[in-house]
Amino acid sequence: NAGVTQTPKFQVLKTGQSMTLQCAQDMNHEYMSWYRQDPGMGLRLIHYSVGAGITDQGEVPNGYNVSRSTTEDFPLRLLSAAPSQTSVYFCASSPVNYGYTFGSGTRLTVV
Amino acid sequence: AQRVTQPEKLLSVFKGAPVELKCNYSYSGSPELFWYVQYSRQRLQLLLRHISRESIKGFTADLNKGETSFHLKKPFAQEEDSAMYYCAPSPAIPTFGRGTSLIVHP
Fold it and tell me: Could you say which of A43, A101, A103 has the minimum Cβ distance to residue B96?
């Protein structure tokens, strides 16, 4: 098992550009979530999904879109990048009633 | 809905001292609670689940329904325990606490 795979590991964007952060898991987990981690702010939930075809907003959803067309994949789209979206992004997956397995993160810089 | 609160941003102790990282929760049903650890520049890892009542790396956590707490404890801290620690409810409600940075001084 590869676990939770996030790509890319590093990315630099210009303000206004769009991009998709990829997240894939091969553990057949129902739950998947996206977080951003900023210094002093902990881990903030962006969007989450409890199964294929079902997504919901978290604490900081503005400027981000997600979709869950398959159990395995949960991409995060930045619609029009802003410097405030400079952060480390983590994807995580979990089966029901167990804890999350996290990806290794994507470090995004918006200039 | 379940929510967790970690009241301390930073906890600083010396090697060999006891450690207690606080987590308080509010819930509308039976709580499911977890502790995660993140070492410097690494991904988060699951440390403990409340239902398993296990000890991992010397850490334990007991669910106290009277105080609505799930504090993480270790009797003798080690330098390698320095990390960020997050308390979190069930993955069905995936909002984490803000985290506590534990620094263990030699």
Answer: A43
